[in-house]
Amino acid sequence: MTELSTSGSPRPDAPAATSAALPTSAALPVSAAGLLAADAESLWHPYSSLSEPSPMRLVRGASGVRLSLDDGDGGTVKAIDAMASWWCMIHGYRNPVLDAALKEQVDDFSHVMFGGLTHEPAIRLASRLIEITPSSLQHVFFCDSGSVSVEVAIKLALQYQVARGRHGRTRMLTVRGGYHGDTFAPMSVCDPVNGMHSLFTGALKEQVFGPQPPSGFDRPDDDPEFLAWAAAMRQVAAQYKDQVAAIIVEPILQGAGGMYPYSPACLRLLRELADEHGFLLILDEIATGFGRTGTLFASSHADIEPDILCIGKALTGGYLSMAATLCTTDVARVVSDGPGGALMHGPTFMANPLACAVALASIDLLLASDWSARIAQISAGLSAGLTPAASLPGVKDVRVLGAVGVVQLAGPVDMKGMTDAVLRRGVWVRPFRDLVYTMPPYICTDEEIALICSAIVEAIAEGN
């Protein structure tokens, strides 16, 4: 690499670089087949094997709610992204408001360290988040990703208990069926048996697990299954009260653990247990925040407030990786006044100005719309469109909560076969385990929601 002087010119003593010594992306083929071959040779995709790689589709462009996929013959096919790019692209692709926010911030500066420095986009975003999240949350720590925000939340809980003199409280209490991320602390609070991280058993911190909440958003708090679950959770909390620092759960909807909805009464019970035993309550709203379940944050369904809140995914409208961990003043002060005198975490790209600017624009864009009515309309469309799947052979359950629609099969889904079948009908999905599901962008029209549903139902019927 040619060395530069501080003026930007090559240093006179720098060795000359030869083109042969410099590998360049210009040498890569431009055909779809060539690029996909290079991908298979070099790239490791999420949850994939290099020995038996999953088939890839080359994205040539994206606009609105549609992806433009290379068809292999020099053209493209368009497909509705029913996944909102893993649940984050709530405003769709190439949104002019979000594009403008990024471009404007680039003209000022793209990044500065957040140690000893601050900037307007971060200050404005923090203020906006404090304004729209539960009122007790008054302090914001910006993170690189959702998984890191859970790491930070767990650190906060552990430091909090140490500062309170409760040195034995080093474990988290959670429930079966949850998913909180792929780094080590979040992996430890994911379901240890049916989750994605059982290979790491023995290497992860052993946390405390209660039973999975009984299914059903509308299940009342006097239901026998709820009462049995509540009794079991009370017993677990009492048994481990001197070991537990915090309770951590995904409120109302367990996401990657199975797209599993449960009653707000369960959240109220967990808040009660936290208060009774001196635990903190951490709510992981990375998937459920910003309107996905029908309220701006899922905790509102239960009318409770957490001590610590994790948000991400839709925070930036899908444009950049960013998350945040919010906490109460009590948590912030106790940790700040405790051993170390600080929260012991500091990402390099914390509060990246580009991410802050686009996140602020995304939140303002969402709140300026009648988002609540739109989510209700999407929910109604998903219910109407997916309900016919319930009568198909091999279908175990159909469920809808807010802008989340799920068809659960009686056995494992053929991911490749199902993806291909839905894509032939103009829709992109990414099934997993026994689930074919959609979490569409909020800007989908009623007609596009209907197309998503018909593509899923027809593909399932075809597979049978």
TrEMBL record:
One GO process term, biological-process aspect: biotin biosynthetic process
Cofactor or coenzyme needed: pyridoxal 5'-phosphate
Catalysed reactions, as listed in the record: (8S)-8-amino-7-oxononanoate + S-adenosyl-L-methionine = S-adenosyl-4-methylsulfanyl-2-oxobutanoate + (7R,8S)-7,8-diammoniononanoate
GO molecular function: adenosylmethionine-8-amino-7-oxononanoate transaminase activity; pyridoxal phosphate binding
Main location, first listed in the record: cytoplasm
Cross-referenced NCBIfam families: bioA, PRK05964.1
Entry's family note: Belongs to the class-III pyridoxal-phosphate-dependent aminotransferase family. BioA subfamily.
Protein name: Adenosylmethionine-8-amino-7-oxononanoate aminotransferase
